[in-house]
Structure prediction request, 190 residues.
Amino acid sequence: MFNFHKHFLGLNNLSPSDCMAWIIRPGMEFGANAAWWGVRKPRKSPHEGVDLCMFRDSAGAIHRMGSCYLIPSACDGVIASVIADFIGMSVFVKTGLRRGDGKALYLLYGHVQPAAGIEAGCAITGGDPVGSVSDTALKVNGPSPHLHVSTAFIREDFPMEMFNWHGLVEGEAEFLDPLDLIEIPVSFDF
Prediction:
């Protein structure tokens, strides 16, 4: 299991009581069929990750994500790709985990502003900053600032020209619920 939460706390100088649990509302969870923002219209395909938009502290206060928060890599790996997404950029980290069928595990961080030096081919260590949360202020009817996290097994020979969200969703990427692999305390507010 990868410890995103511990790295998030350390990178942002937060104590465990400052961020007790991430709040997951309908539409933010893996496999959701509707968006969680705006009029909650249906998604084109089931949600391939989890959206981290807000967290609760030990006093019960809710804190929203914003560009002030740094996003850590949950594990060691190599940056496979950095591409534009509909809010900011997505950073794809190839982990050291491989299966016998020729697929490697990737962690995908969406809607970020990459940190300096984050580019394809660079090594990254668990806890190092991937970037910060992208600002959504200019997006009309878009979601609040949030981090999208996906985990997927992807063929090691997957064509780089298809290494984008459309190519992965339509291709052979095997998306997994990130909450099964990344240590994140959550509170489902359904």
Observations:
- The radius of gyration is 16 Å.
- Residues 4-188 form a domain with the Glucose Permease (Domain IIA) fold (CATH 2.70.70.10).
- The chain has a mean pLDDT of 90.
- The longest strand covers residues 103-114.
